[in-house]
TrEMBL record, chain A:
Protein name as it appears in the record: DNA replication complex GINS protein PSF1
SUPFAM superfamilies the UniProt entry points to: GINS helical bundle-like
Listed Pfam families: PSF1_C, Sld5
Domain of life: Eukaryota
Cross-referenced InterPro entries: GINS_A, GINS_bundle-like_dom_sf, GINS_Psf1, PSF1_C
TrEMBL record, chain B:
Protein name, UniProt field: DNA replication complex GINS protein PSF3-like isoform X1
Species the sequence originates in: Cucumis melo (Muskmelon)
Keyword Nucleotide-binding: no
Superkingdom as given in the UniProt entry: Eukaryota
Main localization category: nucleus
Automatic annotation (TrEMBL), chain C:
Organism whose genome encodes this protein: Cucumis melo (Muskmelon)
One GO CC term on file: GINS complex
DNA replication complex GINS protein SLD5 C-terminal domain mapped to chain residues: 168-229
UniProt keyword terms in alphabetical order: DNA replication, Nucleus
Summary of the function given for this chain in its UniProt record: The GINS complex plays an essential role in the initiation of DNA replication.
Coiled coil (residue ranges): none
The keyword Cytoplasm is assigned to this record: no
Domain GINS subunit intervals: 74-138
Nucleus keyword on record: yes
Domain of life: Eukaryota
Name by which UniProt lists this protein: DNA replication complex GINS protein SLD5
Subcellular location: Nucleus
Pfam annotation, one family: SLD5_C
Length: 200, 185, 229
């Protein structure tokens, strides 16, 4: 049946975990693209048949015309599914950009993106940074309403020594060490899984 | 089209509908019972809604009322709405019903969908707010996609409320990162 | 009550008042709540944002001065908390707007009404985002499709209008209240009124919460007579 494969792409989007990206399914994607090309060829040949029979394209509603119509509808349906696949993934990518708080694409995300998506990720991150610097406002912190300006955190991964914080002090974030940090300094590490908040 | 990119809208339109062709069609392989790539006038074929709708509007084919909205289903729902298995009849029961209603000339579908929803939603919300997990997976299998979304929304706000009441870490590791960090060797 | 700390003498009550100007925090809170709750982007509060930024700067300078001059760290951290809250509101307000732009950029660019609500920087942002998105769509999908199907706004050249543009859902229900008594609110449009049973226009008492669809109260929210929660 027409449009089946295209719908599979959309089903893939629906069945994934919310906010998570699956690997870009280039095989299936390309198959749908070539189905589109196929539909277009059939559409054109049916239209040509009408013309060759000397009939008026605008007014003729014969079997060939309806055949061409169905191929057109299938093409439009495939286009919608392809666009929705790219569009919804782009939405997820944008929400990842906000969550990653301005840092580089983690490798586990990067391998799931198509080349164009990787480009888009970089470009959109740059746009946000541009906007933030124009406003002189860092929008990647304060994602949660502030209760205390300082929180206690434990380091989960060896982040390193001599890290400079927002108040120009330096800290050594060795594995398992516990620190009392400014919330806005800790946010990015927590979000990347490198620290966890401790609530005593 | 405001819902052009909406995943649920796209999936709802993939539901199959039975149509009877009023005109003959050439050059298409959509009728599995036909030996050629054509469809004869009068043939009964099952098509996805996105195609059936367009053909119906252009009077190339006529759509029949899908079985999930037939008399039998209505009687079952009348008997005990909250526990009828809607999902196995039609995943997008309500959305699909809304799309079909103006096309099949049955004016009662709209109000019937509404009353079905009304009878069921109270049960959905009650189950979502209680903490009994054992009962929920069997029950969840009865819900349509729209009802499932409602259930999940209610559950997550309940969870958020409980969490807020109890305190606990407010900052979380971003959920898209994998649970175990594999060591690179 | 004055305190003597390491030689410096500062009257704390005086400074607290000049320190936390409450005049703009309330309007900022209101703008933030409305923007978060409204399905479409609201008019940009340029002068409010400008004043808040100045106030934030002033507060940051004061805090620095206080911590250097040895004021009780507990008191400094109270001021810090206040500053944090205002910064959060401002950041969240701007973020809310950007996220709506990201979602509906094509629609905003087509709608004069919505376009007028953007700040200068937001206009640049929207324009550049649209350019990036179009390029991404072209590369991933559109350039690979047959001619006549390559447009990002129309499904095919036979489309009579731009049928691929998502719109903000104005029929979302919102929680709201009015500051004063309001009457003659039309909840339904022409079509709906003809077929519905509700004849009288709706009225809202002051400070009573209501849950209504956004669309009918749109203009009242914009003019500031209804607040969203």
């Amino acid at each position: 049946m027409y449009g089946r494969k295209a719908c599979q792409l959309v089903t893939e989007l629906a069945s994934g975990e919310k906010g998570q990206l699956t690997h870009f399914n280039s095989d299936l994607f390309e198959q749908v693209i070539s189905e589109c090309q196929q539909h277009h060829l059939e559409l054109q040949s049916l239209i040509r048949k009408v013309q060759e029979e000397g009939l008026d394209l605008q007014t003729t509603k014969n079997e060939d015309h309806f055949g061409a119509l169905i191929h057109h509808l299938a093409l439009v349906r495939n286009k919608r599914c392809l666009m929705a696949y790219v569009h919804n993934r782009a939405e997820t990518i944008r929400s990842l950009i906000w969550k990653l708080l301005g840092s580089m694409i983690p490798p586990e995300i990067q391998e799931k993106l198509s080349n164009s998506e990787e480009e888009y990720f970089k470009k959109h991150s740059a746009r946000l940074k541009e906007y933030m610097s124009k406003l002189e406002l860092d929008l990647t912190v304060d994602m949660v309403p502030p209760k205390d300006p300082y929180i206690q955190v434990r380091v989960l991964d060896d982040i390193g020594e001599g890290i400079v914080l927002s108040d120009d002090k330096t800290a050594n974030f060795a594995l398992h060490s516990i620190h009392f940090l400014k919330r806005t300094d800790a946010e990015q590490y927590i979000s990347r899984g490198l620290m966890e908040e401790l609530r005593g | 089209m405001t819902s052009y990119y909406d995943i649920d809208d796209i999936l709802a339109e993939e539901e199959l509908v039975s149509v009877v062709f009023q005109k003959a069609v050439n050059g298409v392989g959509i009728d599995p019972s036909s030996e050629t790539d054509s469809v004869e006038s009068g043939s009964k074929v099952e098509l996805p809604f996105w195609l059936a709708q367009e053909l119906h509007l252009r009077q190339v084919a006529v759509m029949a009322l899908p079985s999930c909205f037939n008399q039998r289903t209505r009687l079952e729902i009348q008997a005990d709405a909250a526990f009828v298995d809607l999902r196995s009849r039609c995943q997008f029961f309500y959305e699909f019903g809304c799309k079909i209603a103006p096309l099949v000339g049955d004016r009662t579908i709209g109000s019937w969908l509404l009353s079905t929803f009304k009878s069921r939603y109270k049960e959905v919300l009650t189950k979502a707010h209680s903490a009994v997990f054992a009962a929920s997976s069997k029950y969840l299998a009865l819900l349509s996609k729209e009802e499932t979304k409602m259930y999940e929304a209610a559950q997550s706000s309940m969870t958020a409320f409980k969490k807020w009441r109890m305190g606990g870490p407010r900052f979380q590791r971003a959920s898209f990162l994998s649970r175990k960090r594999k060591s690179t060797e | 009550m004055a305190s003597n700390l390491g030689g410096a003498s500062i009257s704390q009550t005086d400074d607290f008042e000049t320190f936390t100007p409450t005049t703009d925090v309330e309007p900022l809170k209101r703008a933030w709540r409305n923007e978060k709750a409204a399905p479409e982007i609201l008019p940009y509060e340029a002068s409010l944002v400008g004043r808040i930024k100045e106030q934030i700067q002033a507060m940051e300078d004061s805090i620095e001065e206080y911590s250097r001059s040895g004021i009780d760290p507990l008191i400094v951290s109270l001021y810090q908390m206040d500053l944090d809250r205002i910064q959060f509101l401002l950041r969240s307000y701007i973020r809310s707007r950007l996220q709506k732009i990201e979602k509906y950029m094509l629609y905003i660019l087509k709608s004069d009404e919505l376009f007028r609500r953007l700040s200068k920087e937001e206009i640049t942002f929207t324009d550049r985002c649209r350019h990036d998105m179009k390029k991404h769509f072209d590369e991933s999908v559109l350039s690979k499709l047959p001619n006549n199907y390559q447009d990002v706004l129309k499904q095919s050249i036979t489309s009579e209008e731009d049928d691929m543009v998502p719109e903000p859902p104005l029929d979302t229900f919102v929680v709201c209240k009015s500051k004063e008594y309001l009457e003659h609110i039309q909840l339904e449009d022409e079509e709906e009124r003809a077929s519905s049973r509700i004849e009288e226009p709706f009225e809202m008492e002051a400070n009573v919460l209501h849950i209504i669809r956004y669309r009918p109260i749109k203009s009242l929210v914009e003019s500031g007579r209804i607040d969203l929660l």
